[in-house]
Every structure is written in structure tokens, then in C-alpha cells.
Amino acid sequence: LSLKIIKKNETNILSFIHLKNKFYEHFFNNNAKSALRILDKIDNNFNYSLWSISMRLIILRLYFGAEEQKNFLNSIKKIYTTGLMPFLIHRVSLKTDINSNFNNYTQSLKNHFKDNKYYIGDDLEFFLTYKLLNIEILNIESFKKILYFEQKFNYIDLFQSMSSIIRRLVIKNGDKIFDQEGFEEFKHISTLIDLSYEQDICVTVFEKIFQNNLYVESNDLKNDFNLFTQINHLLKDLILLNEDFDRSLNKLINLITVVL
CA 50 to CA 31: how far, in whole Å? Predict the structure, then answer.
């Protein structure tokens, strides 16, 4: 069923991939307003997805402040009043505060599952943990559990999860992953997956991180946050193993798990 959904929406997914890559291009160049305009196009064309909501939350929080993020959250809560989306959106919003403690965030999630064990089954807990903590999926059984729940969401989220899981498996195991029972059928969308992960973006990221003079799109943002200056400082603390090591490691984990 998941593959049928992807095939049915292949033209739209190709359009989404193009816009997503343009979004990352602006995001990784600290062009926050331009990145938001691309997200507007994505939402207008394909409706809201957890991916687009997550990206908007982190941009609003980092570049425009907590109040702007809160206003967006209030508006999105009026759209999603039931189901898993309100829970996921709330939990993602907590991660966008890079000063929050990731270990505490993880423990809070585990406590929630424990307190609601009669309402949240093992498979649902596994899916929510994947969505919020970006855990690695290692086998076809786990993969199918994720796809089962993703089918209930926007096909953009279904594709994002499907492509990211397969991409990580290919990186780890090579193309022979498609020879394994259950995975062979997904080889048909390998071209879409390759398009979804532009190698040029990776080059841009690391070039920007280690540049000294980093361009910021506008001086009328609510703060002077610069994504790559921030990452540069965090990496420096980790490499030097200085007194800010733990704090910087926590911030970097928060940034990475939201963006991914």
C-alpha cells in the first residue's frame, strides 16, 4: 500500500523534492525568510506535513523568536485537534529550543509512554520514538511498522520516512539491501530517493560551517542567530573538550534531530 501511495503521487513528490532542495539551499545559507516562502509553497501545494511543520517551527524559533513560534503553534492546533499530529507537533516544538536538555526530553517521552501504556501499544510507541528521536531502523519488520502508521499521514511524510530509512540502509549495506526479502520492491523508487538527497547540499553545509564570514539574509530578524556560526562554535567546544562540552553536545543533538 505504501508503494502504491508513492506511485500514485509520484509527480507531486518530484515537485516536492525540487522545492525541498531549494528550501535547504536557503536554510543552509541562513536565508530564513526565503526558506519560509518555500515552505509556504510546499504547504499550499501538498498541504501541511509533519516535516514542513517541523522545519517551520525551528526557523521561527531560531530566527524570529519564541512568540512567533507560539503564534504558529496556536494556528496549527486549530487545524489538528485530534489524533497523533497534536502530540507530535507539541513534542517537536519542545525540541526546537536548542537550550533544552535532550536527555531530559528523551526521558520525558519515555515517562509519557510508561504513564500511558494502556493506551499506547508497543508498535505505536516504536513509531513515535522513531518520529521524535530519529532512531535507526534495521530490518523489514521495523520498516513496515513505520510505514503502517505513516500511511495515516500526508504522503509527503510517508515518502520522507521511507526515503530516509532506505537511504540509511543503503549507506550501511550498499545496494544489496534491495536483495533482502521484503526490500526488493522498494528498489523501484530508488531514483526518487537519490533525487531527495542532493550531494551538493552536503558540500554547502560543511563549507558554510567552516567559513569565517557567514552571510545573513537580513538584519531585521528578531535576533542575530546564524545557523553555521552556531554549529561552528558547538563543534569547536566538542573538539577542544572544554568546559562547555556537555552543553554544546546537547545543543548540537537538538539541532540535528529537529532538522533530520
Answer: 21
Helix or strand holding residue 202 (H, E): helix 199-209
**How high is the mean pLDDT of the chain?**
81
Query: Which 3 state secondary structure label does DSSP give 109?
Result: helix
Dihedral of alpha carbons 32, 57, 96, 151, sign: negative
Helix, strand and coil in the chain, % to nearest 5? 75, 0, 25
Cβ burial of 241 (10 Å; 0-12, 13-18, 19+) is exposed
**pTM of structure:** 0.80
The DSSP 8-state label assigned to residue 62 in this structure reads: I
Quick one: cell of 5? 501511495
Checking if the pLDDT of 192 tops 80, the result is no
How far apart CA 91 and CA 223 sit, in angstroms, is 24
Q: How many residues does the chain have?
A: 260
Query: What pLDDT score does 75 carry?
Result: 95
